């Protein structure tokens, strides 16, 4: 029972052809099989957002996606956000505004911010808070994270 | 998670056949309830049947009334311009479920079939007098949503049946609605009490033509507060009558005490929130 399935996925613009057991989550695939440890395991039940990745253009919690479900999908993890040496504007904004303390929530926060700014070009404060609801931070109290989002918003305009 | 077989049928007939032919099979839609159940060993499937490759059940159709495929994501319902325009209370309810990450995966069908009395899609759809289509081996059957739920996490779905579509009657578009979900947070919570009110009233005279009131998380299933509705249908919505109906709705609720709230608190909440819901519809600009 539970024999492996072949899946083809594109992660950060690289194509992978893999054999996986059905009971492996996308989170474990990314971290253990592909070595992309920027995506973090917080709660493993979709409640904290630390494992947020972008799958086919939408933010999801990778802990609640089976790797086999992602066959054929295009995935962006935090590692795929910048090209070359320069940080993505959102990453730079998080650095500049002091929104990174322990850093554990940061990859998920940044990817959700990216999805927000892609989807809602001119978000209100309420829009931003509503969009980021699924990403928890135990360190910062969120204020500087919201500052970072606003800075990134100005940069990207 | 324990090991299981994984099947991804490309059509509904194959999905139903897979349900019959496999041992302890579970259907997978968005996975936001199922995977948690598997990780905590609350459920132990030997076989997972992924519904996401079945055509024609993941979109919102409109043709004199909405037909929503069971695999439509809650996020798609939340942001649908047509739903926001014609039956906005459904979009509001959808937006209260989990987080954006969850809503991008969770499906309207999965939310109903998981059968929690607190399901965010259940109360609002119950108030909307929906019907659901269920695919079975010998064809399709249609039942009213208020006959769908049989108990906590229990529905009328047979072992080889798949919920395929949710049908919302066109007349709902002439109602104004609210969805109130009470809990300690604005997001990422299961409601302590959920209230859905749909009202067709003459706002000037306060005459109620028809009202539907559905309650979530206060009974073994989501329920309609039908006695409260009877008090109000065809009547003038004076504050004392609204209060009386709210008390009646509270009496119709049969909540339990759990770690989220006591039964008494839930009954109190039903009373205040039903009244509040009706007031919000009658006076939308009141602060």
User: Element order, helices and strands of chain B?
Assistant: EHEHEEEHHHHHHEEEEEEEEEHHH
> What is the mean predicted local confidence, pLDDT of chain A?
97
Structural class, from secondary structure content of chain B? alpha+beta
Low-confidence sequence ranges of chain A? none
Explain how this protein is built.
The complex is a heterodimer of chains A (157) and B (287). Chain A is of the alpha+beta class. Chain A has five helices and five strands. Chain A starts with a strand and ends with a helix. The mean pLDDT of chain A is 97. By secondary structure, chain B is of the alpha+beta class. Chain B has helices spanning 12-21, 34-39, 74-79, 81-86, 88-95, 100-103, 108-114, 120-127, 226-232, 239-252, 263-282; strands spanning 5-7, 25-28, 47-50, 60-62, 66-69, 131-136, 139-144, 149-151, 154-155, 162-168, 176-182, 193-202, 207-216, 223-224. In chain B, the strands form four sheets. Chain B has a five-stranded antiparallel β-sheet with strand order 4-5-10-6-7. A four-stranded antiparallel β-sheet of chain B has the order 11-12-13-14. A three-stranded parallel β-sheet of chain B has the order 1-3-2, covered by helices on one side. Chain B starts with a strand and ends in a 5-residue tail after the last helix. Chain A binds chain B through residues 1-3, 5, 21-23, 25, 44-47, 49, 52, 58-61, 63-66, 68-69, 112, 115, 130-131, 133-135, and chain B through 1-6, 8, 28, 31-32, 35-36, 38-39, 46, 48, 50, 52, 75, 95, 98-102, 104-105, 186-188.
Note the main attributes of this structure.
heterodimer; A: 157 residues; alpha+beta; 5 helices; B: alpha+beta; four-stranded antiparallel sheet; 11 helices
Question: What topology does this entry show?
Answer:
The complex is a heterodimer of chains A (157) and B (287).
Chain A: E1 5-11, E2 14-20, H1 26-33, E3 52-55, E4 58-61, E5 74-76, H2 89-96, H3 106-119, H4 125-131, H5 143-156
Parallel strand pairs in A: 1-5
Antiparallel strand pairs in A: 1-2, 3-4, 3-5
Chain B: E1 5-7, H1 12-21, E2 25-28, H2 34-39, E3 47-50, E4 60-62, E5 66-69, H3 74-79, H4 81-86, H5 88-95, H6 100-103, H7 108-114, H8 120-127, E6 131-136, E7 139-144, E8 149-151, E9 154-155, E10 162-168, E11 176-182, E12 193-202, E13 207-216, E14 223-224, H9 226-232, H10 239-252, H11 263-282
